Task: structure prediction
Amino acid sequence: MTDALAVEGLRIRDAGGNALVDDISFAIRRGGALTLIGETGSGKSLVALAMLGLLPSGMKATGTITLAGERPLDAADGRGLKALWRRHLMLVPQEPAAALDPIMRVRRQLALAGLLGAKIDVALRAVDLEEEDGGKFGFELSGGMAQRVLVATALGTGAPVVVADEPTKCLDPERVGQVIGLLRRLLLDGRSLFVITHDRRLAQSLPGQLAILHGGRIVEHGRAEDVIAAPRSAFGRAWMASDPAAWPSCARSCDRSRLALSAHGLSFAWPGRPPLFRELDLHLPRGGILGIDGPSGCGKTTLGDVLLGLRRPSAGSVEWAGEDIVGRPDAIRPMRRRYQKLHQEPAAAFIPGVPLRRQFEALRLVVPGFDALRALPELLDRLKLRHALVDRRPEELSGGEAQRMSLARVLALDPRVIIADEPTSRLDPVVQRETMALLREQVEARGISVVLVSHDASLLRVIADETISLARAPGVPA
Amino acid sequence: MRIAPPRGAAGLAAAIAALACLGPLVAPMDPLGQDLMRVMEPPGARHWLGTDHVGRDVLSRVLAGAPYSLGLALLSVGMSASTGTLLGLVAANSGAAGRAVVMRLADLVLAFPGLLLALLLSGLFGGGVLPMLAGLHLAMWPLYARMADATATSTLREGHVEAARLAGFPEWIILLRHVLPRVLRTLAPLAILGTGQAIMSIAALGFLGLGLRPPTPEWGAMISDLLPFLAEGVVQVAAPCAAIFATVLALSLAGRSLAGSSMPPRVR
Result:
């Protein structure tokens, strides 16, 4: 049987001649799948971009790419590769909602992709979309629906090879399940799949081959079941061990009598909408970790904002160390600095384009006696960050470094409570594990309380002392 | 994506700025000195660009006019951009009521065609530099205020502003350190494009006799003065026109390339 896609000796260099991806070769047979996993920044997405002839200008690719029934193409031949789109190659991009035109109807977008008449309805039905969904505009679709439209496009065009770049990024478990179902449907349809991901569950549920990319090289490559069951490379073992289900659980004792944060009868509703949550009670003792989970759009982030005093609840009370803060800026002010947030986007807490050192130095305006020169080296050491990193700008850090830097910033403020809003959902599993371990270490060393918002139930099971589950809010599409 | 450094446009803009500073010094003759024996002389060895209807050297007048045309344009743009930035930040930071006041005020001004306000004020006060500047200022600030408001509003929603608020930074520091740099970055290309427009407006007011008073060598007024003599002296009319054209072109190109590079480069 011929291979649907063969990549031979693919190398990608940046403008300075540094190898970003080095000597990658693989082949996917018809109806087969290859899943490429690896840490953030290891060059996974570059491989997909090179295959599509979409490398950013300045980067150079060498090697050959062969699609079934075509002559081998040079990886540097961007135009030749682009000519293969649709007929041979189809991309399911990272952010599905951003890949559709918001002001064009779905049916028309499918038609532009080459689907005609009845084929559109067949493709829509194949991904469980209704006929009337075809008449919707791009902006009316939820993330999950947009993804289904993209898969419908891939189904309809008949391209034998489908490339999916992080198709489950930032999705809650229910939607991850849907995406896995969609990808399997493509396989059943006889397509070949090239999937790039750092999602453990996705990597484990796709059949075929599994390759691990580390530092620009494939360090391990084999049948998915074999690699998962017995990884040979050190990085592969770390990756498999990063599954929270495999983490050692630790029972901790915290002082239940002293509450850092509590809420009673908390409700929140956007004007004119049904409430996101209702009559919620929660208690966070000093040094405790409270987990909050639930599907996307259930109001987890909003709940965090209410607890931080950033939003006013529709009803109920929020107490910081026993003091009600709802609608009382005077009560918030003296404690403001002690209630902090870790953002989902790792670099979000820093001003883009401004060196981190300057941003840390500015903290002396709000933390009495904070001396960046003295405090910073110790803080960075504790979070295992290289000292030279503070002279960079936030956008020059990797996701894991940025998230640890954000944690350093929050710790510099001497917090009592940290509300961590999906702090690791954008990080790969190995970095996620490291970051979580550091967070837990700091919490234990300093008696900080944490509210950990996440849609990863297995993570919360090992990290949190107690977990509150929010239900999907009524009227939010899946 | 890499943006090519705007060498050409920057060079042209630098040449024009140098001209504005040095123009009067390098002018070969007195720009005001009349010589009624040599009116409308064609370009020659003595007068490179010829003489005007009262025998003044056109090259000297174009050179000497640069600081007036360009300087006044920069002044009016600087004033309107400052006012606009200030009011835009106020609008973005003062809730629905404050924004409504500032933006309705801006709408009111925007309802008038740009030049009409300047024309009205200049006409009312009998021409001259101050009414012209005031009029241009009044006509141009809403553009900057709207842009500043939009940029500030979106910046205020970003994570680093929330983080700064949570850390307890006072609001004015947040505006100064988190919001203002971003606002200035988006306004800079707008201001450069605006300078080109202001030169045109000053020239137009000068052409109508409402700007600088004669015999000040200002490009617009020069065109207006010489237009009746177009048949005898094409070069003399073309010279200030070319000066305006080159300046506006250079500033527009510089503004365009600045707009392209004002986005912070994204990694990956």
Remarks:
- Chain B has a mean pLDDT of 82.
- Chain B touches chain A through 19 residues (CB under 8 Å).
